[in-house]
Amino acid sequence: MDDLGTFGIYTFDFEHQPAALMRESVRELEEQGWRAFWFPEVGGREAFTQAAVLLAATERLRVVNGITQIWSHPAHSAHGAAALLADAYPGRHVLGLGFGGEPHPGVKPLTAMREYLDELDARESAAPIRRILAAYGPKMLELARDRAAGAQTYHVNVEHTARARETLGPDAFLAVEHTVLFETDPTTARAVAREHLHTYLTTPYNIAKFRRLGYTEDDLARGGSDRIVDDLVFWGDLEAITGKLRRHVEAGADHVVVQVIGIEPGATARPFWRELGQALLR
Description:
This protein is 46% helix and 18% strand. It is α/β, with parallel strands linked by helices.
């Protein structure tokens, strides 16, 4: 997975932007030298269709579904779509899989993912399908190591990156998403960061993840302590932000995926992507 480079771009913005703006944005990223673009599946746009649009708009850019929700895509459909993209755009699509979509009460994520991978593996493909798993805890990380190319993490601190590398071992791929905010005033930065983190600090699955990372009830209460906010959202000027992002690489990440927040409604993160590219892609 070295072809993704050390840093990539991640955004939710494409969930609501028109296709023309999406194409324009990814072409600019490719021209700047970015090698990987990541997007989630949360707002209604189907993951494989969106990946196909972005791949068709570019020539070299790697496009990663980060992540495709397994409950939204039966394994046979996901296999067929991923196999077609692998054939049409050799080496340029990465299938990220995660426990998301329609809820299935009583079904454990690890069991569901293992069974999903079994179904995928039972099907043949003429073109190699590269896949990674959304993983946080040791058991899912082990599954990502043993049954995929590696893992993607989301909203974790640098300490978690070091732990994940220990679990994955030296060879499995580790991509770490991290959110950044171009704001130097601490009060303003933390207010924007807390708004962004609200959903993550109030849902049971994420709360459990943060507790495993050593955050206390006080850290999780009242919108999040300064400690957890500063750990999960790197804010400041360009030099401060990029310096913190590189800590994930030092801790064992192969690839750091940068998500810019604090964008005004109707605006685009592209100016910040340019700044990040100038600093991180040299």
